[in-house]
Write a structure and sequence with these properties.
Blueprint lengths: L2 E4 L13 H14 L2 E5 L15 H4 L5 E6 L11 E4 L5 H11 L5 H12 L2 H28 L3 E4 L6 E6 L6 H10 L4 E3 L12 E5 L8 H15 L3
Parallel strand pairs: 1-2, 2-3
Antiparallel strand pairs: 3-4, 5-6, 6-8, 7-8
């Protein structure tokens, strides 16, 4: 391969986190193959269990990782600002490309965000959001497990802003459940939609960041009752 694209901090949709062992193995493989790694550090700010792993870029000893991130999850989706950290050897090529493709962009917003970061406000905001989102995640997972029990398995609880609810019964129509949930004002996505071939597992992707903390209990209860009505006896 010429380029390997990964989201090691929180894979979508299952929510898996790449272990330190696999990160080192990937770096070794890329070095042997003389290829680049594009590390999309998606959802890295919100890790709820255990110590965070070092990024691939931080572990890289061969200057082969391009590291990218965004502020849209931490700030708000409309901010549309991201960043890319490239190896020193690639700077001339990226400077040339930036010169050829440059658009002024949101210069005032970039300047304001720079001050926001350097004054320490971004780290404070992330800490506050992490506490709030963890409370929502814990409440949602607890209520789902209590209501559905061994009919489901919850994946992706270590980090990120969504849970993946996996059905332990094979003949579940997750598309139908997602449509029914949408009709009741609950936005969930069917896992089967993300398979290239025939789905091997059915489930739902539950984003909880948009649900206010006080609304999580009734939201979870409503969703669980809907799911139970759709599951086979």
């Amino acid at each position: 391969p010429r380029l390997i694209y990964v989201t090691p901090s929180h894979q979508y949709p299952l929510g898996h986190v790449m272990s330190l062992q696999r990160r080192r193995a990937l770096l070794q493989f890329a070095a042997q193959q003389r290829c680049w790694i594009f590390e999309d550090d998606y959802d890295s700010e919100f890790r709820f269990g255990g110590r965070p792993f070092a990024s691939l870029q931080g572990l890289d000893e061969h200057a082969q990782v391009l590291y990218s991130g965004t502020f849209s999850k931490v700030m708000y989706p409309g901010i549309r600002l991201g960043y890319l950290v490239v190896p020193t050897d690639l700077l001339p090529a990226f400077n040339t490309g930036l010169y050829d493709l440059y658009r002024p962009g949101q210069l005032m917003l970039q300047a304001a965000l720079t001050d926001f970061i350097t004054e320490g406000h971004l780290n404070t905001l992330i800490r506050r959001l992490r506490v709030a989102y963890q409370a929502r995640r814990d409440e949602l997972a607890r209520r789902i497990q209590r209501c559905l029990g061994d009919r489901v398995q919850i994946s992706g609880q270590e980090s990120g802003l969504h849970l993946c609810l996996l059905f332990n019964t094979p003949d579940v129509d997750d598309e139908a459940i997602a449509r029914a949930a949408d009709a009741q004002g609950m936005t969930v996505r069917p896992l089967s939609r993300y398979y290239l071939g025939a789905p091997q597992r059915r489930g739902l992707i539950l984003g909880y960041a948009y649900v206010p903390t006080e609304r999580v209990p009734p939201w979870a209860q409503k969703l669980c009752m809907l799911i139970r009505s759709q599951l086979p006896d």
